[in-house]
Automatic annotation (TrEMBL):
Organism: Paenibacillus nanensis
Source superkingdom: Bacteria
Function noted in UniProt: HflC and HflK could encode or regulate a protease.
Subunit structure: HflC and HflK may interact to form a multimeric complex.
Transmembrane intervals: 28-49
Protein name per UniProt: Protein HflK
Length: 347
């Protein structure tokens, strides 16, 4: 048989919950309040600064000091407050366009400007900057990024507004870029913004799209072709001038050598003439005859020379060629005999 479960004691509907004593309630409220205060103090008295950040500590709303990366203690608000800024981070802003991922969105109100010769040009730039002074950065400007955009736009317009379009889109890009960077640095220093300009680079300086852009592109191509031809001409000049100078120097040196040679020959002829003249002065007849014979021997090397005397009835002559030939033969034989004799004595 199944037995029915026995029912427990029935609740008394008239029973009241236990009452807390007044002292217990007071202690409980104090404990809860103390716990809340401790949690609040613990959460608001410590703060963390990341590696690329710095924190400005405000005591009763006034800047007191700054801290670097790490865990730091401060008095809870409203005694002290902390404002953390990315002071160690190098940042970039774009002028004339915005980049959203791979998409580039033009901003014409920043890019379009007028040149000094009243032409329209589009200029895009990138500014690299960082925070150099936290106090000036927080208190001297209300919107640092917008201020930097406005200052950059003003600097670009003031420089390009004083230049001609042709110069701005061709040879003057680098010079204009340097002038704009210097002007922008001056503005940051003048207004004490606490911003350090690291660099400014132009992406493009060109006329607006359409026929104007095509016309100026043609002008740019023509100028580049002109510069190429000038460079080629300068290269040819640098190649030819040294060669021509070398050839000229060689001709000069050859002429100098020829000059010295002729001077020496002339001096030798003068010395020879003076020597002959001295001998001629001593004995004119003999020297004259000798000169005549030497001249005849030079101009008629194979002629037979006879000296005759036609002053008498009998023609007397002196066969010089035969005498000289016989004299030469006898000299040769005498020299040969002398050599043999010396050889016999040596044995």
């Amino acid at each position: 048989m199944n037995q029915e479960p026995q029912a427990g004691p029935k609740a008394n509907p008239n029973r009241k919950p236990p009452e807390l004593k007044p002292g217990t309630v007071k202690k409980l409220m104090i404990g809860i309040a103390a716990a809340i205060v401790i949690i609040y103090l613990g959460s608001s008295s410590f703060y963390t600064v990341q590696e690329q950040e710095r924190a400005a500590v405000l005591t009763f709303g006034k800047y007191s000091h700054e801290t670097t990366s790490g865990l730091h203690f401060k008095w809870p608000a409203p005694i002290q407050q902390v404002r953390i800024v990315p002071a160690e981070l190098t940042q970039h802003i774009t002028i004339g366009y915005r980049q959203n991922g791979d998409e580039v969105i033009p901003v014409d109100e920043e890019a379009i400007m007028i040149t000094g010769d009243e032409n329209i040009v589009s200029a895009d730039a990138v500014v690299t900057w960082k925070i150099s002074d936290i106090h000036d950065y927080l208190y001297n400007i209300s919107n640092p990024e917008q201020f930097l955009r406005n200052a950059t736009g003003a600097s670009i317009r003031s420089v390009i507004g004083s230049q001609k379009l042709d110069y701005a889109i061709t040879d003057g890009k680098t010079a204009i870029q340097d002038q704009v960077r210097e002007r922008l640095i001056e503005l940051q220093s003048k207004y004490e913004t606490g911003i350090q300009i690291i660099d400014l680079k132009f992406q493009d300086i060109e006329p607006p799209g359409g026929e104007v852009e095509d016309a100026f592109r043609a002008v740019t191509n023509a100028r580049e072709e002109k510069n190429t031809k000038i460079n080629n001409a300068a290269k040819y000049e640098n190649d030819r001038i040294p060669k021509a100078r070398g050839e000229a120097q060689a001709l000069i040196e050859h002429a100098e050598a020829e000059k010295k040679s002729r001077i020496l020959n002339a001096e030798g002829d003068v010395a020879k003439f003076n020597a002959i003249y001295a001998e001629y002065a001593k004995n004119p007849d003999v020297t004259e005859s000798r000169l005549i014979l030497e001249t005849l021997e030079k101009i008629l090397p194979n002629a037979q020379i006879f000296i005759t005397n036609s002053g008498s009835d009998t023609v007397n002559y002196l066969p010089l060629n035969e005498l000289l030939r016989d004299k030469g033969a006898s000299s040769s034989s005498g020299s040969s005999t002398s050599d043999n004799t010396q050889g016999g004595n040596a044995q």
